[in-house]
Amino acid sequence: MELPFVFLISYLILSCFAASCHGVTFSSLQKTLIVSASSPLGHDLKAGKDELTIKWEFNQTFPPGTDSSYKTVKLKLCYAPESQKDRPWRKTVDNLKKDKTCQHLIVARPYNPSNNSFTWTVERDIPSAKFFVRVYAYDGQEVAVGYGQNTDHSKTVGLFSVHAITGRHASIDVASACFSLFSVGSLAGFFYLERRKGKVSEYK
Amino acid sequence: MPEIEGSPGTSMHGVTGREPVLAFSVASPMVPTDTTAKFKLPVDSEHKAKVFKLFSLANPHMLTFHLSWLSFFTTFVSTFAASPLVPIIRDNLNLTKSDIGNAGVASVSGSIFSRLVMGAVCDMLGPRYGCAFLIMLSAPTVFCMSFVENASGYIAVRFMIGFSLATFVSCQYWMSTMFNGKIIGLVNGTAAGWGNMGGGATQLLMPVLFEVIKKAGATPFTAWRIAFFIPGWLNVIMGILVLTLGQDLPDGNLGALQKKGDVAKDKFGKVLWYAVTNYRTWIFVLLYGYSMGVELTIDNVIAEYFYDRFDLKLHLAGIIAATFGMANIVARPFGGFTSDFMAKRFGMRGRLWNLWLLQTAGGIFCLCLGLVNSLPLAITFMILFSIGAQAACGATFGIIPFISRRSLGIISGMTGAGGNFGSGLTQLVFFANASFSTANGLSYMGIMIICCTLPVTLVHFPQWGSMFLPPSKDNVKGSEEHYYVSEWTEEEKLKGMHLGGLKFAENSRSERGGMVASVSTPNVTPNHV
């Protein structure tokens, strides 16, 4: 009788502690990669249509061997502070596990110190917002060990504006209108028919 | 005894102080069975069912029950359909936290007014058309979600869809035309609880629909729009079922209902006056705002909370959120049951303590829910919170029938509106503001629940006492008769309008607790309720 109770309490207490384990923090990472992003259309991109070309390489001013643990890189589209305002689900937090700044993965690649380039068509599920590009470098255990981004520390230059698709389609609009008319029409029809039946039976 | 068809509160008349929440049937000596009627269930002289057979589809009584609660369930599904999809919708429409919060407020505000109007609509058109009109006219508003492109459109559509929550009134009204007054408490409680489950079911349904439509090839920003067609069709299908299979009265005669409805001898003004001037009404309006109101708020915010705070996938967040609303299937009747259980021993004082305990416990668990960082703990506290809040809803309606006999209908309606109002206010203050995180909002809401439940200590019945005070020792003032008959003026007493109140008072003596049996009811001919 007592044992399950003790088990439950210790489970609940351990759950508390499990949640407080920390991961890698962003401030501990060095900006060892130089990243640039460009588009032939300038800084306004349309989701689903326009392309972004991203180039990245190791910053040679860092001592050689800094990138010895780098195995893979992930390119991510990240929200600029302007697009994080009033939207706590995009908040920047130092603990990378909890950080919500970079929610869209562009591509993952094996690491090369130089000569890297990737052209990406902005996907259709990217929302309307201002973005910058960040590249994270990971070691063999998938732990972040370095980064680079195409903007400065305050994240205000080099930003791209994405204009999202609406998600609306003419066919959906038409279907919506048809079903609405059907609903109202069948209600009106029932009402009218029953009233008429009522009047007829009154006359009888 | 002059019972007036169609007058305010008649739908709740016949609900005496005696029936326990779990009264499944009424025995024959109490209410005589009409043996000439050819219905599948035993009926009284007005052909209202005396028995509540849950798993039957007997026409018309049980069929009406199922049509009725399913319609109410459907409107809950439609009203809260957006909530589990907010993580997608907020990106598509570029919403801010205040937009999302305001939309949540809008979704519950519309029905404050529509519920007040719905009673009159049911009087005019009958509950069958009242229900059908509401759900079939709100189906276009659900389909309109596919057109929405920005925050204002989103808020407007959620507001319009929210009007459909008035099916609560048509549901309860319809039950009262089909079921005898002595079992109407259980019938209405079950219908209300099962309808509320729709708020949970939708958290499960919409993410699944979204995933399926996405797998079929749609992009996320299109998939959620298509997903809304399902609640829309549910509205239309239920409307058609109600129109084709339903009937207003056991004998199917809408005309008779309308005829009786013209003769309203009890003045609406008087009934409203006695509701409004009874301070207990306002305490319960506040309290219900923090049991039902909190439930509606959680239906709106919880899926997004689990998605963001614990980084869950959309459908997983939906499953967890659904367990909150689905708990209604047992939690709400449980609250009524504990209320009756406490009343047997301790009378009305037991009912009040029961309500305070359940609702405060809910508040404490809500406070904890916002504080914890681990997923298993959050789920545990959410479930405990749901049981507390929903049981409190059930317990509230275990006390409401005793506040007034004359104005019962209006007090029930005002309490219901208080639930929506509390929800709108809470969402506005704690969840529409970027300055509070949702987690903090939940904790503050928990504190608010605890504080707003304290006024129940002030509810005092001279004949039964309150939480801390015993009943009045005065022989006259401390009698049930004095309390219930004081709602009628001398003039009205001369006309005999107070006789129903007297009978109710006799029956309510069981609220003194200590296993006091009620005085046996004199053999009176059944009311024309």
Helical/strand content category of chain B: mainly alpha
Give the percentage of residues in beta strands of chain B.
under 5%
What gap, in angstroms, lies between the N and C termini of chain B? 11 Å
Q: Kindly, what is the distance between the CA atoms of the first and last residues of chain A, rounded to a whole number of angstroms? A: 76 Å
Task: Work out the helicity level of chain A.
Answer: 25-40%
Number of helices of chain B: 21
* Main beta sheet strand tally, sense and closure of chain A: 6 strands, mixed
Name the assembly state.
heterodimer
Overview of this protein structure:
Chain A has 204 residues and is α+β, with helices and mostly antiparallel strands. In chain A, 27% of the residues lie in helices and 28% in strands. In chain A, strand 7 and strand 8 form a beta hairpin. The model of chain A has no long low-confidence stretch (mean pLDDT 87). With 529 residues, chain B is an all-alpha fold. Helices cover 64% and strands 0% of the residues of chain B. Chain B is built from 21 helices and no strands.
Spell out the blueprint of helices and strands.
The complex is a heterodimer of chains A (about 200) and B (about 525).
Chain A: H1 2-19, E1 33-38, E2 44-46, E3 51-58, E4 72-79, H2 81-84, E5 104-110, E6 116-121, E7 129-138, E8 144-149, E9 160-163, H3 170-203
Parallel strand pairs in A: 2-9
Antiparallel strand pairs in A: 1-3, 3-6, 4-5, 4-7, 7-8, 7-9
Chain B: H1 61-79, H2 86-92, H3 97-143, H4 151-162, H5 167-178, H6 184-196, H7 198-215, H8 220-227, H9 229-245, H10 254-261, H11 268-276, H12 279-289, H13 292-309, H14 314-326, H15 328-371, H16 375-399, H17 408-431, H18 438-453, H19 480-485, H20 490-494, H21 499-507
Short description:
The complex is a heterodimer of chains A (204) and B (529). By secondary structure, chain A is an alpha+beta fold.
